[in-house]
Amino acid sequence: MQFKSLKSRIAVVFLTLILLIQIVGSIAIKLSIEKNARASVNEQLQIGERIFRSLLEQNGENLSQGARILATDYGFRQAIASNDYETVLSALSNHQSRIGADIAIFYAPGRDSLTISGSLPEDVARGKVSALIKSAQNNGDTRDFVVFKNQPYQLVAVPVKAPLTIGWIVMGFKINNELAQKLNKLSNLEVTFISKSNDSHWSSMASTLNMASSEELVAISAEKISKKSSSDHPDNSEIDIGKTDYGTRYVAIFDTPDQALFAVLQRSIDEATAPYKTLQLNLLILTIIGALVFIAGIFYISKRITMPITELAETAKQLEAGNYDIMVHSDRKDELGKLGNAFNSMSEAIASREKSILKLAYWDEMTQLPNRASFMLQLGQAMAVAKEKNESLSVLVMDLDRFKQINNILGQSSGDELLHAVAERISSSTRRKSDVVARFGGDEFAVLLPTANIAIGLSVASALIKTLETPIQVNDQFVDITAGLGIATYPDHAENEEQLLSRAEMAMYKSKASNSGAIVFEPAFDISSQDNLSLSSELKSAISNKELALYIQPKIDLITRKVCSTEALIRWKHPKKGLVFPDEFIPFAEHTGLIRSISLLMLSEAAALSATWRDHGIYIPIAVNISARDLIDHDLPNKLNNILNTHHVDTSAISLEITESSIMDDPLRAQQTLDNLSQMGVKLAIDDFGTGYSSLSYLKRLPVSELKIDKSFVLKMEEDDSDSKIVRSTIDLGHNLGLKVVAEGIENEKVWDLLKEMGCDYGQGYFMSKPMPAQDFLVWMSRWDDSGTQQVKSIAKRIPKKRLS
């Protein structure tokens, strides 16, 4: 059954809760009553046992006192001495009546005879009485229980002395209905005595139960007692007799192989729980009345609650349909009234925000151009039209070069102004009003050209590139702008809008990497992307599997021709492709972030190599290149310090080389990292000087001690006068800044001499040595440095020739 209305759900939920609470409460009360009733019954049975044993003790004491009085009677002893057994019998009978005993016996040891007052035959009594007297002869007065012809007795035996023992008096009470009724009055328990003598069956000679119940109890008890050892008595259990449950306790009066006597104490559990059942009935009636009252209250309250909520639900449907003019009218002052007023305020706010959100969802707030979502929507619509009319369309994606550097140098507000100016120039380069110009975010823009093939796309791209050639003025500064631009066309390159845009972006990334203007998408670009995914996995494996090898290239003092330091270079010994050079994987490592792991590996290997050289008396610093990602890692100094400590080398063993462009990616963080490294005592050098974008004013603040001239200026300086002038100027600049100058790319002696003449401090290049495996360096050094040939050769022989990676 389903309850669709809130009113019915509230009623059902609360009614179910109250019923569950009442049911659980009733069950708990019932279980508690039964538990308490049974506990009370067990307690009564235990008390009844104590009363019964006290009663037996009292009867035994009365018998003992009566027998002792008779035993000390002078006339009784005179009658025994004169063998006047008629007088003895008369005295026994009188005393028996006086104390209310059921049997009185005198035993004369000299005659071995019994004088019995009562209806017990001598032949029945002799054996049991003789056993009792024998026990009394050893222990003095003796009390015991015996069964004569299925009738249990409580007996005592007292000696008659004059002064020696001249006989024994035995007196006893029957264990009968009189005792059972007496115990019933004292304990309010049902009492049944069951006994067994020799091989006879269990029987009951006394019980407060009716005969049928007594016989049923004897049958049940006989089975229960036969299954238990004597140590198991007394025992509490529940017995069903005559469809009535009794709590039952078995009290063993005596239990021997020949005879046994038990008192069975019982209390009716139904009687014990009867008062509580009346209480349960009263609670049930109260529960039903309370549930009815609660139902009425629930329906009234739920109606009061749900009526205004229903009105608010109708209002919400109107808001969902876009009708924001509807108002909720309510005079209520409670929470529901406040909710109605909140609905009114919400509808006004939604109407206002929906207008703003609609604009923000599809428009770039800064440039007032469509954003990516709007562009994709219009691209999808344009492709649908192009498919229907069998036409072409093109997508251009453009990403500015060096925008992050410009933004860092000029500031964010100037960067926003620059983007706004670029947006205006792109819009001015389109052909028609149907062309769509959008900003995707950051410095990335896109242009949609409906009904445009590849030729038209290239034409628009050329116009756009030409427009950007004119510097843009930002805050009294002129900024040169270049961009990577990719083109993809439907249906030549893709069948849907997502794929078309993705392939235009692939072409754009290719354009940025090659710096070759607008590029049209080619299928090879996509394959390259898949190769990159494979390269990422292979490069991670190469780092963990130690496939990256350390190579060394020396730096030579141009005046003394001595090896002053070395540069650590990396090579990838690919298991299938062979030796892979850094140009093929370092840019990808920088893009994916793997460069940090590679840099730490190179630093660790360089430190290990330096420690090996030091142990053999060679002290030559090793320079390691670090990337832009390393420079913005504020923890780099700590990592380097840990590496140096691990290999027990100091900061003079390792120097670091950084490029101008890596510094300019994030100048502030790079400056902080370099300052920390310099304070540690690490020597720093500017690598590939002349190819970056740094300014001299910023360069002079860097804590560097060495400047390396890029090999592109050195390779042909003996042929190109312009390169020669640039190199000379760079050497003078470095010296004026207090820096040592290193020239890369020395490939012949003529260039060596020119650099030496210009005052260049150090040189590096193929003329001296190509990069070599680390273990080959000392052998090369022995050939280069004639003055140390024998020493270096000897050292080289002692160093194990193995790859250090």
Question: Topology of this protein?
Answer:
Elements lengths: L5 H66 L2 H8 L3 H15 L3 E6 L4 E5 L4 H18 L2 E7 L2 E11 L3 E10 L2 H11 L2 E8 L5 E5 L3 H16 L9 E6 L2 E12 L3 E10 H52 L14 H28 L9 H18 L3 E8 L2 H8 L1 H18 L6 E6 L2 E7 L3 H15 L3 E3 L2 E3 L3 E8 L6 H18 L3 E3 L2 H22 L3 E10 L5 E12 L3 E3 L1 H11 L2 H21 L6 E4 L2 H4 L4 H12 L6 E6 H6 L1 H14 L2 E7 L6 H4 L6 E4 L1 H4 L6 H16 L3 E5 L4 H10 L3 E3 L7 E2 L3 H8 L4 H10 L7
Parallel strand pairs: 16-17, 19-21, 21-22, 22-23, 23-24, 24-25, 25-26
Antiparallel strand pairs: 1-2, 1-5, 3-4, 4-5, 6-7, 6-10, 8-9, 9-10, 11-13, 11-16, 12-13, 14-15, 18-19, 18-26, 18-27, 19-20
Structure description:
It is a single chain. The protein is α+β, with helices and mostly antiparallel strands. 54% of the residues lie in helices and 22% in strands. The protein contains 26 helices and 27 strands. It has an 8-stranded mixed barrel with strand order 18-19-21-22-23-24-25-26. Helix 13 (497-514) links the parallel strand 16 and strand 17. The longest helix has 66 residues, at 6-71. Residues 787-805 have low confidence and may be disordered.
